[in-house]
Inverse folding.
C-alpha cells in the first residue's frame, strides 16, 4: 500500500457539498484518486486550513490534509515566508510515498525540492499541450517557464497524456523517467448504448469560457448553421480576455444557442447522452476528458485537426474532423444514420478498450513502482 498526496487544492470543490469544480485536470485527477484508492492505496488531498466546507459522504475515503491558510499573510514573498514552509511541515509529518501534481506551475520547482528533503517521490501529470509547448500560451512569463522547466528536471516521474507531449518531453528531458498513459474514466455501464442519429436534438459544447476554447469559432459555426441547435455548458472564469468576452456576448444573441451554465459531473453524462454530437472548437488541448464522457454515451465527436490526440478521432472513426466553419457545414450534412451508428459504436468500444480507470490505474502503479 502506498500513500498518495494530491496537491491540487481545487479538487476540494469536487468532493464538498455545493462545490464549484472547474477544469478538466480536476476531473482527471479525481479519477486517478478513485483508481489508486480502489487498488488499495491511501489517498490524501491538500486542503486550505480555512476551508470548512462539508465533504460529501461518498468521498469519505479521501483524507483531507489542512496545508496552509490561503488568506493568511497576503504580503510580498508569501510563498517563501509562509506557504512553502507549511508544505514542508506537512510532508515531513505525514511521510507520503508519492506527491502527485496535476497542473504544472512555477511552484513545482520548490515542491520537488521539498519532496527531495522529505523522501517523497514527485509525480508530474501533464494536463495540457501548453505544459510542454509554451508557445501555445503567451501568458506564461519567462520566469515561470524557467521554474517549470527546473521542476520537470527535479520531478521523479513525468506522465504525459498523448504522443505529442511524450515526444516533446523526451526531446527536452532525455534522461528523465517519462511515460505516456491515457486519461482514465470510470465506466458508467448504464450509459453504454449505441445511438441513432435522430436521438440527439442538439450539438453540445462543454468548456469554461477562455481563449483556449475559442468561442470565436463557436460563434462562426453556430451563426452559419441556423438550423442546428447548440447547447453550451460552461462558465466564465475569474479572469478573461477581450476575444472571449466579445464572442460570449455575440453568442448570447443567437436564437439557436442556449447557455446551460456549469453542469455538474453527476449530470454531464445525461447531458451528453441527449446530444447528437460533442463539438470542440479548442485551439489546443491535451486529452479532453469531455471526449471520454461523450464516448461513454455513444456520442460522436466533431473537432478540429488541432485537437485530435494521437489521431484517435479519425483512426478509430470516433467522429469527424473539420478545418473551418465552411468545412463543418459540408461534413455534418454528409452524415447519414448508418455512418452515425458506426461512429457511436466505435466510441463505446474505444473507451472501454483504452480508458478504463482501473486498468490504467494498475498501469500507472506498475510504472511508478520502478522509480
Amino acid at each position: 500500500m502506498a500513500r498518495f498526496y494530491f496537491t491540487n487544492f481545487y479538487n476540494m470543490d469536487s468532493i464538498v457539498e455545493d462545490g464549484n469544480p472547474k477544469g478538466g485536470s480536476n476531473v482527471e485527477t479525481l479519477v486517478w484518486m478513485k483508481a489508486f484508492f480502489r487498488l488499495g492505496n491511501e489517498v490524501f488531498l491538500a486542503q486550505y486550513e480555512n476551508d470548512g466546507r462539508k465533504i460529501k459522504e461518498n468521498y469519505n475515503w479521501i483524507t483531507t490534509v489542512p496545508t496552509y491558510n490561503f488568506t493568511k499573510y497576503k504580503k510580498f514573498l508569501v510563498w517563501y515566508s509562509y506557504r512553502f514552509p507549511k508544505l514542508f511541515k506537512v510532508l515531513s509529518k505525514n511521510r507520503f510515498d508519492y506527491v502527485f501534481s496535476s497542473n504544472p506551475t512555477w511552484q513545482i520547482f520548490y515542491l520537488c525540492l521539498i519532496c527531495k528533503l522529505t523522501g517523497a517521490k514527485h509525480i508530474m501529470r501533464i494536463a495540457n499541450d501548453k505544459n510542454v509547448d509554451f508557445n501555445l500560451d503567451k501568458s506564461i512569463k519567462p520566469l515561470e517557464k524557467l521554474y517549470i522547466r527546473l521542476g520537470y528536471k527535479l520531478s521523479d516521474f513525468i506522465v504525459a497524456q498523448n504522443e505529442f507531449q511524450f515526444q516533446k518531453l523526451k526531446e527536452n528531458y532525455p534522461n528523465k523517467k517519462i511515460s505516456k498513459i491515457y486519461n482514465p474514466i470510470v465506466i458508467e455501464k448504464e450509459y453504454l448504448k449505441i445511438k441513432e442519429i435522430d436521438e440527439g436534438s442538439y450539438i453540445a459544447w462543454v468548456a469554461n469560457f477562455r481563449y483556449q476554447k475559442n468561442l470565436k469559432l463557436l460563434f462562426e459555426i453556430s451563426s452559419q448553421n441556423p438550423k442546428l441547435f447548440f447547447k453550451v455548458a460552461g462558465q466564465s472564469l475569474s479572469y478573461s480576455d477581450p476575444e472571449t468576452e466579445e464572442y460570449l456576448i455575440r453568442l448570447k444573441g443567437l436564437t439557436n444557442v442556449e447557455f446551460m451554465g456549469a453542469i455538474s459531473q453527476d449530470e454531464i453524462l445525461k447531458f451528453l447522452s441527449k446530444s447528437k454530437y460533442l463539438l470542440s472548437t479548442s485551439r489546443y488541448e491535451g486529452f479532453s476528458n469531455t471526449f471520454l464522457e461523450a464516448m461513454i454515451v455513444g456520442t460522436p465527436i466533431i473537432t478540429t485537426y488541432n485537437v485530435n490526440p494521437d489521431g484517435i478521432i479519425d483512426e478509430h472513426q470516433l467522429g469527424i474532423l473539420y478545418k473551418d466553419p465552411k468545412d463543418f457545414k459540408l461534413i455534418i450534412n454528409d452524415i447519414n444514420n448508418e455512418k452515425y451508428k458506426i461512429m457511436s459504436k466505435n466510441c463505446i468500444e474505444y473507451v472501454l478498450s483504452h480508458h478504463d480507470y482501473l486498468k490504467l490505474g494498475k498501469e500507472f502503479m506498475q510504472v511508478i513502482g520502478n522509480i
Q: What stands out?
A: The first strand starts at residue 3 and ends at 6. The two ends are 16 Å apart (CA to CA). The domain at 3-183+356-368 is CATH 3.40.50.2000 (Rossmann fold).
